[in-house]
Amino acid sequence: xxxxxxxxxxVGIYLLATLVIGLRSGxxxxxxxxxxxAADRQFGVLPMYFIMGGTIFSAFAFLGGPGWAYSRGAAAxxxxxxxxxxxxxxxxxxxxxxxxxRRFGFVTQAQLVVGRFPSRPLSTLLAVVSVGAxxxxxxxxxxxxxxxxxxxxQGHVPxxxxxxxxxxxxxxxxxxxxxxxxxxxxxFEGIIMMAVAWxxxxxxxxxxxxxxxxxxxxxxxARPELLTMPGLGPDGSRWSWGAYSSAVLSSAIGFAMWxxxxxxxxxxxxxxxxxxxxxLFPSFQLFLIPLLLVGFAGVLFPTPPPTADSVLLHxxxxxxxxxxxxxxxxxxxxxxxxxxxDALLHGAASIAIEDGIAPYTRLRDERRRFLMQVxxxxxGGFAFYLAAVERRSLVWLLLTAYGVVDQLAPPxxxxxxxRRATTTGVLSGLVAGIAATVFWFLNPALRPYDIHEGILGxxxxxxxxxxxxxxxxxxxxxxxxxxxxxxGDAAYGDASRAGSDVAVAGGASDGS
Amino acid sequence: MTGVHPAAARARRHRRxxxxxxIVYAIAVTYPGVLPFNRARPFVLGLPFSMVWVTLWIVLGGxxxxxxxxxxPRDGT
Lengths: 512, 77
Known about the structure:
The structure holds 2 protein chains of 2 kinds. The N and C termini of chain A lie far apart (70 Å). Chain A is mainly α. Chain A is built from 22 helices and no strands. Chain A is globular. Chain B has helices at residues 6-28, 49-71. Chain B contains 2 helices and no strands. Chain B is 60% helix and 0% strand. Classes of the chains: A mainly alpha, B mainly alpha. At the A-B interface, helix 5, helix 9, helix 10 and helix 12 of A face helix 1 and helix 2 of B.
């Protein structure tokens, strides 16, 4: 058996196992929208933990994380810093959102926002922003899968076929199993990628330099600038503190606002499940450390990789590891790509129907589920076509997507914490924030202190939201009460408005 | 509606403490809070000090979540 055949066989076994798990776990869900989109609100801690963790561990983290550490040094520490900060608001937001979801039947983030701020244009805008942000992200995951396949099989499995194999499996289990399939495949994919990341992150420094300490000693002597923040910029000169700090903040604010993640609050079995997921989440964040170690191991590697992102693949092939190890690595990288891509594909289809189409029509539950499944195929095919044709040229779309997703934070916080916010205020803030983000993304020279465009957009967004809200007629108390009153304290039989001004734990707005 | 249940008041205090902690966290890992700790040496467990510093905050964040969860009463929902 040739080496590439052995590798492909191991990867094939992994893909088959994933498919079986996805199909089996999807069978239990009911056939309506809540079953397909929110797994009947029945997820326990295990799938929730791996869903939240799996999104951090995308193909971008698996290949891009080591690439950053290799080429930009401590700049990569921003990836370590934002995750825990980003999940913190979730501890308070998610149980509140979940309670409203059970009460009003919400399964998406936009339904929650539009429930508080009734407006079909707002719903459509949120749907367009979400799907627009998902597609480049999904393409990048597909490209990651294709590149891994093509590289480790030395071109015997071409880029397009690798991406098609991995995402063929994803499409089938998302199509049939919906959210339940995503939850349980992510458990399997998460375990594989964590094992591979730790295995390689510890093995490579030992094999190449005799340990992690000796490796960093060598780097500290040869390239000390790589070991202190803010590290290096994309052009290899020192990165700016403004860019580093605002990258941490922008990612932290955007993290819990990604619509495919946020909507998983509606899939959890109970509030306690959501809280425990947050408690366990930092342990997943630590799994980024070995990936950065891999990148640092590449710094003094004798032959440079063709591109920074391929440093991991390059070292694996150059160090002559056994086919079994390479096959497992390949499965780990695919797992990282697939556990992110499945939630994106499923989220894009669910959101397009629930928030983009359903508000204008009176479709029955089963009909909407069927349309979502059609869209899974359409969106999957479209993203695959773009990934195969465009390859890497659309990375910039993903980078701006993060800034745009930040703009979803003010509507969500306003919906849950600020009585005085109005529909007009939220809608105009959102439009202004997105426009500002795109403007500063396209004109980086005009950014003050090199600050991330998402943060600049937020400043505009919040200013417009607050001022327009104060100029328009307040919503009736009877309407805002359900959203803003602290349902967490209602458990004590005390939902009094007297104390709710100090209950804005999210801190974004305080105006009751 | 008068009076706040003591358990509710305690829950609010915990939330404010947690909020304070995460603000300190954000300052400690960005400019300028990170500056005093932003150095390659001493190494801890073979890792440069700057990397250990950001990792330490991940662990502290986990501890705070755990304390917060322990302090949250089981409300049965």
